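Q: Okay, next protein. This is MFS transporter permease from Levilactobacillus koreensis. I've checked the sequence twice, so it should be correct. Can you predict the 3D structure?
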Amino acid sequence: MAKQKRFDWILLVILMSYFMILLDNSIIFTGTVKIAQDLNLNQATLSWVSSAYSLTFGGFLLLGGRAGDLFGRRRVFQLGLIIFGIGSLLVGLAVNAPMIIASRAFQGIGSAILAPTTLAILMDTYEGAERTKAIAYYGAMAGIGASVSLVIGGIFASLLTWRVGFFMNVPISIWMFYLAVKHLSKDTGQSGKLDWVGTFSSLIGMSALVYSIIGDWAQLPAFLLAVVFLAIFIFQEHRSHQPIMPLRLFTDRERIGAYVGRFLYLGAMMGFWFITPQLMQNQLGFSALMAGVAFFPLTVVNFIIALQVARLTAKWGNGGLLVTGIALTAAGMLWLSFFTPATGYWWGIAAPMVIIGVGQGFSLSPFTAARVAHTQGADAGAASGVVNVMHQLGGSVGLSILVTTQDLFKGQVIGFQHAILVGASLLFLALVAAIFLIVPGERQKD
């Protein structure tokens, strides 16, 4: 693809598409109460509004990444926009539980196509310093987008309706489709065909794995099903000449550390984003809007730090920046675990959020760079798919762990404290992965 000399429309398409995915994830956090009221959903049914999306998102990610390699990035990207836009419209129009759950599942398929394809387009388009800068923006969007989306979701839930957040994706998807036609070069992809055995075994295996964590019944059979089908998937990828997830992606020490670290990091952060707005509403009397705005200390700091990531990466190295970022995030989470209503918002939540925001700004871009490190062009889509699988599954696993931990205690505050401590522990394990896998792997390549 041609390098952009004027306004970078390609980067805009990549970042806006990624932001749409993040927006719909975060709106659920601040809009659950309103959704339940409007559609008469109980707590168990409400959980499926999020779970249905996670299952299809995680299950189709590898297919979405490999399809871009085989059939062309632009063509597959446009298909993802169509599915995501239609899914968003149907979610906004939902009038009952089956409709919103099915629509969220359909929307998740669109996200599973968009997420790896956008990162693969980034890798195809940029090289050298420009790639480092683009990855910095992409990684920053993961943190900033999630935080800003909490605010947007709070505004919609409090002042308008939760449906607006899904309706707005429709015109954005149409605009992104137009920009893709105009600015993305048409690529023909590679010769070959999809690995259907690998596709369906990974879909069933990962869906069963996610369900075994977040499901409300038959969790053990689901876990056993996941083990069986993931074993079939690994065997198939080993023997296939055209795998959707080449096992050679896991031969690089730096990438392995990044996959593990991202899984753990997002697990901690997803739980943090989910339980903290509820705490502020129930213990401090915040409205949904106020709870969203209360994330500004994290969002603003994250944005400022993100602008410095490209320069700091050149100075400290990707691994050094990542170690610093994870350590700061863990320190902020540890501080947050001491929250009590007596400490109040500013000292008990806002101040730790500043530290978390700095750490998040330092961490997400280096994670993205490390996870696609040293990949060949033919594997860019598959590598991007694995990146997003770790993101999605890590978030689902971590969220379930933190929520389960919180529910073990009678009081919400003490449950929150212990859940956040567990999140800090996950971050510590991510730090270990960065120190012993990513940093040595990066130095080995130098």
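A: Here is a summary of the prediction. The two ends are 27 Å apart (CA to CA). The chain is about 80% helix and 0% strand.
Q: Noted. On to the next one.
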